[in-house]
Amino acid sequence: MSDALDKAEAAVREAQTDTVAVQLALAAVELAKAATVQQQTVQPHACQHQHKPGRSAGEWIGIACAVCVGSVGLAFASLALAILGGVAAIVALILRDLWRDMQKKR
Fold first, then answer.
1. Would 48 be classed as within a structural domain?
2. Could you read off the pLDDT of 24-40 as tens digits, one per residue?
3. Could you give the number of structural domains in the chain?
4. Does any domain span residue 80?
């Protein structure tokens, strides 16, 4: 676009007569140049904050493995608590039965 404006300006300047039409053409060329320069200097609005880079596939795989290991650990802990509760109930029943037997013998 700049080449076309330069050619038009050169053609207008080469004109022999300095008429009103030539002056208007020169003014139009100057306005077009000014508009082109202004459009080139105006930049689109860019955000000012820094973006964090996203996680890589290796990081996501590591997170998934950690979640899996943690959930298996929780499952084993829950199973251990259930077994402990069952053993405690059995021991309580046995002790209660022993206590009743000892009370009957007196």
1. no
2. 777 777 777 777 766 66
3. 2
4. yes
Judge contact between 12 and 22, C-beta under 8 A. yes
104 belongs to a structural domain = yes
Domain range for 18 is 2-41
Give per-residue pLDDT as tens, 65-97.
Answer: 999 999 999 999 999 999 999 999 999 999 999
User: Cβ contacts of residue 33 below 8 Å, gap of 6+?
Assistant: 5, 9
Gap between the Cα atoms of 67 and 79, Å rounded: 18
Name the pTM for this structure. Answer: 0.43
What crossing angle do the helices spanning 2-13 and 20-41 adopt, rounded to 10°? 160
